Amino acid sequence: MTPSPRSLAPLLGAFLLIAPWLVLHAVGFHGDPLHVSLLTGLAILGAAFLLSWGAELLQVEVSQAFALALLALIAVLPDYAVDAVFAFQAGRDPAVAQQGYAVANMTGGNRLLIGLGWTSVMLVAWWRHGARQVALERSQVLELGCYWWRPCMRWCCRSRES
Questions:
Q1: Per residue in 13-55, pLDDT tens?
Q2: How many CB atoms lie within 10 A of CB 162?
Q3: What are phi and psi of 130, to 5 degrees?
């Protein structure tokens, strides 16, 4: 069965989001930080769509839980690699530890993932399918409970501090 051009349009769109950054990075472009950050953000968004589609395809071969765990691991590994470098540097030099780069990087990355990453995926899904609600299977209760545990605990701790 040959896929129709219309069904391949989102995949092509995701690749087109990544392409400008790849080309400019390959030629060594170091232009205006606003343009570089815009292209980088679009490339990350395109890569996120490709990763999520890859995880959906992986569910054909392995269980859904394993595919989602692998997707989550791939999504957070770069952030944790940067954290490891900052933590290593902070362990070697107390002045670096006082600057708090490791903590700032981890909290900033998580806020971006929760605030922008998941939100943009949900908005695109609602736009694409016109759904007003998200229907989840009963088997996904544990994952959602774990997902909401951390923000709820953070909110409780902050409300106690003030």
A1: 889 999 998 998 899 888 888 888 899 889 988 988 888 888 8
A2: 4
A3: 65, 25
